[in-house]
Design a protein that fits this description.
Length: about 350
């Protein structure tokens, strides 16, 4: 499977997971705080910083009819209308350019989740290098098609989608001549629990659809992200805030900077640890071979004397014959005198 190139970064099996810090509404309607989150993402070692491009009117109606009231999804959202929630959560369009510029200055890819075709049109004027389709939009073919037509990488969260729907998403991308697709296994609960994350879907989805697969993770902590890396996730997305105590619509399931740094470090270690199938001592283990057991002379032995369980033993260090040769050498005479502490070798017999 070919790598996907984003700026100076690569998404692929031979590379550490591409880690995206999702700002969402954690800026609290402050550009200064938004830029501080960009700085924190870079300091943590993230490769990308993602925002969201929408207005409340792009997403819903300004209505308090029962269908438009949030119930049971997240304590911080409870009782709000969708329009009120998205007003709190949205990132002003005039902030996009400075946020992307700060990300680029710090060596990160800055990009966005568009929530309408018009949002993609706007992002194209800023040279947005990639697009993320959120789980709640992944059943909207027109949005995926417009993103695909940019010719840029498109990352799609899979929350709530059936396999048939996922196949349709990938098919739309490929019909538009764009094979730069990454699917992110996602559980659309906020926060999510490890027990309903179902990470074994990652290698299955990759095999079924032949594309890169990662994780959009709403669980707390780093364990799920590390496990996803081991299962082949090439992209990880986590929400980032400066302090959960600051509050906000996404703060309760967002990482703080020190936690994000730990996630980046541990996922890179996990990817490095995968290595390749190998047996026998590695280059790094050569010096440790001396601490294995081998056959040694434990009493002085005269020339012609036979080897017995009293004058040889299997002990450390490992410079003599391997222990599995013990039965083979017992009872055999030695050709020269051997001192106690001598490693037994074939030329001594």
């Amino acid at each position: 499977m070919q790598d996907i190139v984003l700026g100076s970064h690569r998404i692929g099996d031979a590379h550490p997971p591409f880690i995206i810090a999702e700002m969402s509404g954690n800026h609290g309607q402050s550009l200064e705080k938004a830029l501080a989150i960009v700085d924190a993402a870079a300091a943590a070692g993230c490769q990308a910083l993602k925002i969201q491009t929408s207005t409340p009117a792009m997403l819903t109606l300004d209505s308090r009819e029962p269908d438009f009231i949030v119930r049971g999804a997240n304590d911080d959202w409870e009782g709000q209308s969708l329009y009120e929630l998205y007003t709190t959560n949205h990132t002003p369009f005039e902030w996009h350019a400075p946020i992307f510029a700060r990300a680029a200055e710090l060596g990160m890819v800055g990009f966005s989740s568009p929530f309408s075709v018009e949002a993609i049109d706007f992002l194209e004027t800023l040279g947005c290098p990639a697009y993320k389709i959120a789980s709640f939009e992944n059943n909207w073919p027109d949005l995926i098609r417009r993103a695909a037509r940019t010719g840029k990488p498109v990352i799609i969260s899979t929350g709530m989608a059936s396999l048939a729907e996922l196949e349709r998403m990938v098919q739309i991308m490929r019909e538009e001549g764009n094979d730069q697709v990454v699917l992110l296994k996602c559980t659309s609960t906020y926060p999510a629990l490890p027990l309903n994350t179902n990470l074994r879907t990652i290698p299955h989805l990759r095999a079924m659809l032949g594309c890169h697969v990662g994780l959009s993770d709403h669980t707390m902590g780093t364990g799920v992200g590390v496990a996803a890396t081991v299962l082949g996730a090439t992209v990880l997305e986590k929400h980032l805030t400066i302090r959960r105590a600051d509050g906000g619509p996404d703060s309760s399931f967002s990482m703080e900077p020190a936690e994000m740094k730990r996630l980046v470090d541990e996922c890179r270690q996990a990817q490095q640890a995968l290595g390749q199938v190998t047996y026998g001592p590695t280059t790094a283990e050569q010096k440790s071979l001396g601490f294995r057991r081998s056959i040694y002379v434990t009493q002085d032995i005269a020339a012609g004397e036979r080897l017995t369980a009293e004058n040889i033993r299997v002990i450390r260090p490992g410079h003599g014959l391997a222990p599995h040769h013990l039965e083979e050498v017992l009872g055999r005479p030695v050709r020269q005198a051997l001192r106690r502490g001598t490693a037994l070798t074939w030329d001594a017999l």
